[in-house]
Amino acid sequence: MNFDTTIGEKNISILHIEGKILGNAADVFRREMEQQLQAAQGKLVVDLMNVPLIDSSALGAIVLTLKYCQESGGKLVLLNPQKAVREVLEVTQLATVIEIYDTEESASAALI
Amino acid sequence: MAETILVVDDDLDILELLRMNLEPDGYEVRTASDGKQAVEAATLDPPDLILLDVMMPHKDGFQVIEELKNIEETKTVPVILLTARGQTEDKVQGLDAGADDYITKPFDLREVTARVKAVLGRTRPIKYMNPLMRAMGSGFNEAGVQQLAGHLQAAAAIQKKLLPEQAPSFQGFDVGILLQSSMSVSGDFYDFIPLSETRVGIVLGDVKGNGIPAALLMVMIRTALRLLCREADDPASILKRINDLVVRDTDATLFATMIYGVMDTVTSTFTYSNGGHCYPLHRKRTGVIDVLKTGSMLVGAFEEATFASNTCLLAPGDIVVFYTDGITETNAGDDSVGNENSLVGSEDVKGQQNATSSDVFYGQDRLAACISENAILSASALCEAIVEDLARFSGSTQTHDDRALVVIKRNT
């Protein structure tokens, strides 16, 4: 797993993840999301377009980050998860508690 | 979850050789080409094992071990030294410094595989106690490790006893079960709870997280379920109560996916609630496969989660299969790729170079096909047939994740 961050429209941070999020990578993923949320006034888009699959550790990272957002008043949205990842989000119904967008514009707009 | 090996050598050819040898065995391999990099990489994200060259510029293998043993996160990571032939002193010095084993260069790759496996086998039980070891602080010693290893075995034994070894029999139905654990304490579980002469509670689930905390959560859920299922009839309200209990009593890293349902043998109905778990498959006698898609939130993560129930009717000859993601997420072996209609490597993953053959999962559709092909078999023979199909698909009888299966077949 690799990641980098870009600043999109209206100064919204977008965390781009590339590769599978499995095992220990999930912890790095969680820390990165939390740091970005802290740095960017609690608003973050996580781009999952290039993530072919995630495991339960990655789900745990998303759950923890959502809880962190609840506590700190931040907001996290997901961008463009692919089929396998989208299925996991749907079966676990995490898709009902996190907003998912198909374009960078709509994801950023949700945070403004 | 793959175990990670950090390979450290200043010879890039050796790094590549070891990577090519270890990755096919299912390990995740990271590399560092000098001692300084090695310490940084190991500290940032502690691996499960380090293969460490002794002779390196800047910082040799002994210095690396010494530093790692003084860092809280890395002091328990096992190290295998790569030493030059004849350098007996190196080996002694290495073991004194805290290395767990050594391999002499030039090495036989089969020896590397064997030693890596042996060291990981020895240290794996200790790894899962790391959170406990940190909590106990510096007072921790070898006797303590031994004692805890004993407790861990006892915990695994208790956990195994809690899972029924044999499928229960209930009037008019044939039941098959299967559990394969990838480590001593398992995250997958199932249970059957007699509610009356004609009604049985059935649960199948998967506790997320690792080691003892996950095992404790499983025991907690099982106990809560056994108590709650007699107080309420509606599976959704039972899952909601378990959810609230787990949210309140554990931290957010622990949660579970599970299905709880009640089989009524008089009406031949199954009323269930699904907390974020893989959708069960209902194969009708006509050959049609229904995916039971009534789902709810995973259990134990969010206080505000709500749960829904649904009912399905089992006609004579119908089969319902419950399974954990260890089944559908079984990876394809190298051999089987290409000779089946690949489910993942289609247009859905275009533009993803990193979706390699090992990303091809067994998947729900293959499972459905296997159920249909073997629908004539008894429930337990169907479990075996699924396991055999998984072995064919993955090219291995080993499993990296726990697998659990419950098959219920209405007699004709």
Explain this structure.
The complex is a heterodimer of chains A (112) and B (412). Chain A is an alpha/beta fold and 112 residues long. Chain A has helices at 25-39, 56-72, 83-91, 104-109, and strands spanning 2-7, 13-18, 43-50, 75-79, 99-101. Chain A has one domain: STAS domain (Transcription Regulator spoIIAA, 2-Layer Sandwich), CATH 3.30.750.24. Chain A contains four helices and five strands, in the order ββαβαβαβα. A five-stranded mixed beta sheet of chain A has the order 1-2-3-4-5. In chain A, β3 (43-50), α2 and β4 form a beta-alpha-beta unit. The longest helix of chain A has 17 residues, at 56-72. Chain A starts with a strand and ends with a helix. Chain B has two domains: 4-127, 3-Layer(aba) Sandwich (Rossmann fold), CATH 3.40.50; 163-410, 4-Layer Sandwich (Phosphatase 2c, domain 1), CATH 3.60.40.10. Chain B contains twelve helices and 15 strands. In chain B, the strands form three sheets. In chain B, strands 2-1-3-4-5 form a five-stranded parallel beta sheet, with helices on both faces. In chain B, a hairpin with a 4-residue loop joins β7 (188-194) and β8 (199-208). In chain B, α2 packs parallel to α3, α7 runs parallel beside α8 (211-228) and α8 (211-228) crosses α9. The two termini of chain B are 41 Å apart. Residues 335-358 of chain B have low confidence and may be disordered. Classes of the chains: A alpha/beta (112), B alpha/beta (412). Chain A binds chain B through residues 18-20, 22-24, 27-28, 50, 52-53, 55-57, 59-60, 63-64, 66-67, 82-84, 90-94, 96-97, and chain B through 1-2, 4, 28, 45, 206, 208-209, 252-253, 255, 257, 276-279, 295-298, 301-302, 325, 329, 344, 348-349, 352, 354-355, 359, 361.
